[in-house]
Design brief:
The protein is α+β, with helices and mostly antiparallel strands. The protein has one domain: Nuclear Transport Factor 2, Chain: A. The protein is built from 6 helices and 4 strands. It is 48% helix and 28% strand. The protein is globular. It has a 4-stranded antiparallel beta sheet, with helices on both faces. The protein starts with a helix and ends with a strand. Keywords: Signal.
């Protein structure tokens, strides 16, 4: 059941990339926050990212498990730039989808923020 819900969430978030957002105030507020999270992940600063998590994320993704991202990020190569970004407000969360260009392969980061600007969701594809 959890796997089904997780997969449905992914499909919804991928749909957000296609929709985009034209709300400049949301873009100005949340895109830099999400970009900073990606930069911290690129640098291996998992503790700093962890401290931005809400309680649910802290329980779901301890710092030790975040270290597994290192392999994925290293496989991508050197970070080059952010290519595309969207922000959508969905059920009280602000969902940022960033396309990050790396030297070997691009990554799509989906980072959700709650109304306290804490990270309530983090997905790397």
């Amino acid at each position: 059941m959890k796997k089904t819900i997780f997969l449905l969430s992914i499909f919804l978030l991928v749909g957000l990339v296609a929709c985009g957002s034209n709300d400049t105030s949301l873009m100005e507020k949340y895109v830099p926050k999400a970009e900073e999270v990606v930069k911290l992940l690129n640098d291996g600063s998992y503790e700093e990212v962890y401290h931005q998590f809400d309680e649910t994320m802290k329980n779901a993704l301890p710092v030790e498990q975040m270290g597994q991202l290192k392999t994925v990020i290293e496989k991508s190569g050197e970070f080059e730039t952010f290519d595309k970004s969207t922000v959508e407000e969905q059920d009280g969360f602000y969902v940022v989808v960033l396309v990050a260009k790396y030297s070997n392969e691009d990554r799509v980061y989906t980072i959700s923020f709650n109304d306290h600007d804490e990270i309530a969701g983090l997905y790397v594809r």
